[in-house]
Design brief:
By secondary structure, the chain is mainly alpha-helical. It has one domain. About 65% of the residues lie in helices and about 0% in strands. The chain is built from three helices and no strands. The longest helix has 22 residues.
């Protein structure tokens, strides 16, 4: 997708230096991926304490063997 955006030069220069990415497009792609990753992590935090992770491994193993 081709898009025109106005970005502060200093912000872009600093991001390019910090990431060692040579293109503005590359910096924007990295920034978008990081934004998405952080949003997904924040969403997962909503499940803290709400998911029961007490798994009986022996029961799971027996279930797999009986289904063959």
């Amino acid at each position: 997708m081709k898009t025109t955006v106005n970005l502060p030069d200093e912000l872009m220069k600093e991001a390019m230096l910090l990431t060692d990415v040579k293109t503005k497009t590359g910096v924007i792609i990295i920034a978008l991926k990081e934004l998405i990753r952080k949003a997904k992590v924040a969403d997962l935090k909503n499940y803290k304490g709400k998911v029961n992770l007490e798994i009986d491994v022996d029961m799971l193993r027996n279930r797999d063997a009986s289904s063959r």
